[in-house]
# Entry
Amino acid sequence: MSAARSLIDSRLKQPIEPKEFRRVCGLFATGVTVITAGSEGEAEGTTVNSFTSVSLEPSLVLFCLHRESRMHAVIGRHGTFAVNVLAGSQQELARSFARRRPEGFDGVPHHFAPDGPPVLTEALAYLTCSTVAVHPGGDHDIVVGEVLELAAPGSPREPLIFYDGTLGPLDAPDGPFGRTGPKDPAAGRNGAGRDA
# Structure
């Protein structure tokens, strides 16, 4: 049987509502990253939680990017990207990169890695990567990168967590993930899914 074929007989399969799929997948707590790419004057970034490591040898990672994302063109032109792992105090930065930033990286502390992509200086950790494959995945593409450089200059701070529609630090003083307030309307556009 092909890996791409469903194990469920299509006559028995019920359609899955996208909103319910997003709600249920949102119960899987994840970290939050900003994927950045480009060069000075052409840098772009987008908030993503669909990031994971793939392989130790070689060191591979992946993230999912909406097929209509502006990031595809930038990553395609440069062939590199950075994964910036956000700290608990960087909620506003995550929200900002979840929307299109007309001001670009103005006011965001960053530097450019030797291999090109911008790195968020105050991130908990970062990995710069060379794109090795892009696979179709429904309305998203799965971007695979080989790690070129990595560091965790911001540890051991609290990480930023996405859970059930809410962004927050791992240990918030007003309850887990700041759950006493309303759900975050800016979160929820890639993977299952968040992408600006």
Observations:
- The two ends are 36 Å apart (CA to CA).
- The chain has three helices and twelve strands.
